[in-house]
Design a protein that fits this description.
Blueprint (H helix, E strand, L loop, with lengths): L1 H19 L12 E4 L3 H4 L12 E6 L4 E21 L3 E18 L4 E8 L5 E8 L2 E6 L11 E7 L2 E11 L3 E10 L3 E7 L4 E5 L2
Parallel strand pairs: 1-4
Antiparallel strand pairs: 2-3, 2-12, 3-4, 4-5, 5-6, 6-7, 8-9, 9-10, 10-11, 11-12
Length: about 200
């Protein structure tokens, strides 16, 4: 009988303790959102968001194809992640800016899309994502004009036109078997080689 009363006493004590401790007790403030935005010098690393000339982007292939894309809008999006906090007090939200250009295809059988993210869902920081057709090229904005970057190749002349401070990249960053591109600060992505279809495209300006 004594054991039974002891058990009941313990249960009552635990119940009173749980009632007296509200969830969130001892928390200061309420969870909020911290915004991480792209800096001006990073945005200037390509012409897509700063140069109206690149509201239209055109490419010609060595097989006679022409691709023409016209920008329809620029959006500022936000990629969100859980920030600091606790289950009792709640969690903050970290919100990372994403600039997004949407293009309409005027001529050719392909699509074109450009994003510049402070951080993206691949956990990449300060990253460009340029999609053309079935290929996506990712590159850090810190790699543009970076002479020490392992993919920096300097000047390149194509069809009697010289491009300076050139960087190369592969489809999905490391898939060298399907597609290759060249890009720089002044022209963005100005050349890509569709290896699967054996076509080479150069920007028209």
């Amino acid at each position: 009988m004594k054991t039974k009363y002891t058990f009941i006493f313990i249960m009552i004590a635990l119940l009173l303790q749980s009632c007296g401790k509200e969830k969130g007790a001892g928390c200061t403030g309420t969870p909020g959102t911290e915004y991480f935005t792209l800096k001006t010098d990073a945005i200037n690393k390509t012409p897509y968001f700063t140069n109206p000339t690149f509201d239209t982007v055109s490419f010609a292939s060595d097989k006679g194809d022409t691709l023409i894309f016209v920008k329809t809008k620029t959006d500022t999006l936000w990629y969100e992640e859980q920030g600091g906090g606790s289950p009792d007090c709640g969690y903050n939200t970290n919100s990372y800016q994403v600039l997004h250009n949407t293009y309409t295809t005027i001529k050719g059988d392909a699509s074109f899309d450009v994003k510049h993210s402070k951080k993206n869902d691949r956990n990449n920081i300060n990253i460009f994502e340029i999609q053309i057709g079935n290929y996506k090229f990712y590159e850090s904005d810190g790699a543009i004009n970076n002479f020490n970057h392992p993919r920096y190749i300097g000047s390149l002349t194509l069809n009697n036109k010289t491009f300076n401070n050139v960087l190369y990249s592969y489809n999905l960053y490391n898939d060298s078997t399907s597609a290759l591109c060249y890009l720089n600060k002044d022209n963005g992505l100005f050349y890509f080689y569709d290896k699967l279809n054996d076509k080479k495209f150069l920007i028209i300006k």
